[in-house]
Amino acid sequence: LLIYDIIKKACNFYKRNLKKAIDKMENKKGISILKPVIIVLLVLLIASTLTVNILFSRSNTPKIFGKFVHIVTQQEGIDMGNEVTAGAAIIADDISKRTLDINTDVVLCKLNGSDEVTVRMFYKVEADAETGELRYYPETDKAQGTELSIGKENIIGVCTKENMTLGKYISFVKNVKGIIALLVVPCVLLVIMIIAAIFRKRDEDDD
């Protein structure tokens, strides 16, 4: 009953206020023509915001259309010096589709014991004395005084592009302000437009 009362009051409020405002706007020919375009844009905005948040909630480096996308963290920007820019989006090819050049390539990889993907460059590749497995040594960890190594199975991609605009967009979409601006507000506007259409149809049927 409480939910019913809330819905009823909302509908009454719409009848008194929103409907008048929307009808007044729709009397203008330009608004009427633009309405389908606005609806399509709102739907695309909602869909893209949901998609980005779902993908990056599953992994910090999702695979999109066959490419890995990774947002460089502040720490990675510091660790990598001038090789990558903090806040930028790195786009990487799958390692299976590229030949790795340890002298020049920036790679996406998982360090031992971690599921998180990070950015690294290597300074050498050596076969393990006991197993014969090739081990890759990250340059960043050497600079920090620690010589770590990872197997090739932990290298997931070779970076090909860096895009700051894309990085800023994804970071904004993922934070609270972005979710409100690009998801909540468009949803509210879309609901208002749907309610307006329902009431208009009802008024036409009554006439």
Task: Describe the overall structure.
This protein has six helices and nine strands, in the order ααββαβββββαββαα. With 207 residues, it is an alpha+beta fold. Strands 1-2-3-9-4-5 form a six-stranded antiparallel sheet. The chain has a three-stranded antiparallel sheet with strand order 6-7-8. Helix 2 packs across helix 6 and helix 5 crosses helix 6. The longest helix is centred in the C-terminal third of the chain and has 31 residues. The two termini are 31 Å apart.
Q: How do the strands line up in the largest sheet?
A: 1-2-3-9-4-5
Let me know the largest β-sheet.
6 strands, antiparallel
What is the number of helices? 6
- Write the H/E string, N to C: HHEEHEEEEEHEEHH
The portion of residues assigned to helices is 40-55%
- Count all strands and give the number: 9
Shape, per Cα inertia axes: elongated
β-strand percent reads 15-25%
Note poorly predicted spans: none
User: Nearest-angstrom radius of gyration?
Assistant: 26 Å
Structural class label: alpha+beta
